[in-house]
Amino acid sequence: MHNTYVYLFIMAGVTYAIRVLPLTLIRGKIQSPFIQSFLYYVPYVTLAVMTFPAILSATQNTISAIAAFLTGILTAWLGFNLFKVAVSCCAVVFLVELFCL
Amino acid sequence: MENIVEKPKAQLSSLVAPHKKAFQEGIRDGIPIAIGYLAVSFSLGIAARNAGLTPLQSFLASFLCNASAGEYAGFTSIAEGASYLEIAIVTFIANARYLLMSCALSQRMEKGLSLFHRLLIGYDVTDELFGIAIARPGQLNPYYMYGAICISIPCWALGTALGALAGNLLPLRLVSCFSVALYGMFLAVIIPPSRKSKVLAGLVAVCFFASYVASVLPPLSQASSGTRTILLTLILSAAAALFFPIKENKEEEKDA
Q1: Is B5 on the interface with A (CB under 8 A)?
Q2: pTM recorded for the entire structure
Q3: What is the per-residue pLDDT for B238?
Q4: Which residues of A touch B189 (CB under 8 A)?
């Protein structure tokens, strides 16, 4: 029989190690232009990959999800800040689902 | 995001002020994240309860791990009575993208940043906090992260405990609304720079497309979404770095 607290401790330890090792071991600027470019692109690629198509199944119907996705792109393109983009997406989902469900 | 650029004066009194301001901005940007966390972690709490965890244990899990997919994978394994080694491996795979994020984040840190700050920031590199951190120009002020952490983590842990405690109380329609908030934030991070750079715009479009294809086409569609994220990130970032290497010192080194 396994102890739940040991489970949690292992999960926490592994998760922390993954995050903290690069932060503590990589000091200063990486010199290789390739690695530099790679790490420059990583955030954008990761966030883009995690956003689509996952957003399509985040809501209760696909239409509201598509509406939220387009709203997010449009408002971000127009230069709305983080909070306003997020709230606009939420509002669109709420409105679309109000009429569609 | 409005960006008030102040010329740093070499006065002692102005040494503390930037940290305070960064902390406050962290809290401000952390509020939408905290709201999103509350909703998402609520459903995570339901998964924790199904795995046999008490509300206290669910709270602890979220407070210590700060990882949605990683925790979810862990809870599923706990429910199956997995071995300790299995839990460790599952947690590693589900969270491996944080390894890449931390590598990227390390490049945004001041060279001489103390170990203490690095250990603290490492506590909470999540998708969302990473997103707002890299959206800021120049070097990362640790206090910005602390502000965002202070407001978002309690919500994350509390939401998980509430989910474990109360189950399906939150109306589905609200969960539906809140859950797109996180994606809205992601878009707010990646779209504005894409407007300025055709390469980034093209890359983001390719990412959307590739991610969609990978989600419907076997064998990648069989893999967990965490694994897909890692593979696509490695491949697409490497390809972009190969074909469109960035000019050195193009970004950052600007504000203090």
Answers
A1: no
A2: 0.71
A3: 95
A4: 43, 47, 82
Q: What is the pLDDT of residue B254?
A: 37
> Cβ of A26 and B100 within 8 Å?
no
Query: What is the reported pLDDT for B168?
Result: 59
Residue B54: φ, ψ to 5°: -80, 165
* Contact between B99 and A22 using a beta-carbon 8 Å cutoff: yes
Facing residue for A89 by CB, picked from B102, B183, B232 = B183
Is residue B184 within 8 A of residue A89, CB to CB? The reply is yes
Short-list A25, A29, A20, CA closest to B110: A29
| Confidence at B1, pLDDT banded by 50, 70, 90 | very low
Q: Return the percentage of chain B with pLDDT > 70, whole number.
A: 89
Enumerate residues 6+ apart whose C-beta is below 8 A from B179: A58, A59, B36, B39, B40
Q: What is the pLDDT of residue B255?
A: 36
* Tokens, residue B203: 């890359």
- Which residue among B179, B194, B229 sits closest to A50, beta carbon to beta carbon? B229
Question: Residues of B with CB below 8 A from A51's CB?
Answer: 183, 186-187, 190, 208
Among B136, B140, B180, the strongest candidate for a mutation testing the A interface, having the largest count of A CBs within 10 A, is B180
Q: Give which of B39, B162, B179 is closest to A94, Cα–Cα.
A: B179
Q: Is the ipTM of this structure higher than 0.90?
A: no
- Cβ distance B16 to B136 under 8 Å? no
Pull the structure tokens for residue B95: 């969270």
pLDDT by position in tens, chain A (length 101): 688 999 999 999 999 999 999 988 888 777 888 988 888 888 788 889 888 888 898 888 899 999 999 999 999 999 887 778 888 998 999 899 888 76
Domains of chain A: which residue ranges?
A: 32-100
Determine the distance in angstroms separating the CA of A100 from the nearest CA of chain B, rounded to an integer: 12
Q: In the block, which residue shows the tokens 């995001």?
A: B1
Residue ranges of B 114-173 with Cβ closer than 8 A to chain A:
115, 118-119, 121-125, 127, 130-132, 134-135, 172-173
